[in-house]
Predict the 3D structure of the following.
Amino acid sequence: MSLEKSKKPKMLVVDDEPDNLDLLYRTFRRDFNVLRAESGIVALEILAAEGEVAVIISDQRMPEMKGTEFLSKTVPQFPDTMRIILTGFTDVEDLVEAINSGQVYKYITKPWDPNELKSVVQRAAETYELLKQRTEELRRAQIQMMLMSSVTEALDHAVPIEKCLHLIADAYRETFTADVCVLQLLENGHLGTRMVSGTPAPELHQDPLVEAGIATGKIQAAMNIPADVNLSVSSYAEAGVQAHLVIPVISKIRCWRFCRCSGSSRKSSETMNYCCCICRLSKSGWC
């Protein structure tokens, strides 16, 4: 199952004038999945339902809520979103405050030049993607550090390699904010020693995603199991699993083993193959 993102990034355009909304929609619909709102209040409701968008274009002069006020309300939950404001020359004070506080990426004066607006939006979208990429790289580095810390902690206490699975399973579950993580060793191509973090845990034997992951060595995912006709697995329904991520892992762990008889130590290495299955009992949180 593909984990690729939608080809079109999301954009939200906000303006109380229907003609402007239609114009912005027509301008960007080919390159973006454009969402429309006629006020800041409606826009906040759309964001609550749709989640993060790459770019927000908002008019400044709107009834009930100014554009800068609306954009400021989106910052805490969506800090990476690029915010562009459309304004006349009479809103300088509000704009300076919004730009200085980092709430606005760019402002465009009315009437806007379509080519200039397209250029600004393109750069904003590229900046957004770069921010998300760097955030993902940092997240992956943190995951690696957490997992390595868990393994090192177990080895420092002379814990057998199988018992390391419990600490690693906890690290995976917490990192992915999952409800349950099943970590199971692969022994001669078959599932062996099993460790569970969280409950309830589905059985992995005859699990189609697990079988595919072991066979291909690639990550497998199902983000909406009840709606997937190819995943009518009884253990999913029994455990209430809504989303499932399978990660086949091959890791070579080097550790120090201490020989009490001589008081010396020698370095050895072990290769551990295991299958990590991460589940959520709700569809929210993974996208």
Remarks:
- Residues 219 and 247 are 5 Å apart (CA to CA).
- Strands lie at 10-14, 33-37, 55-59, 82-87, 106-109, 180-187, 190-197, 220-222, 243-258, 265-280.
- The longest helix spans residues 114-156.
- The helical segments are 18-28, 40-50, 67-74, 92-100, 114-156, 161-175, 208-216, 234-239.
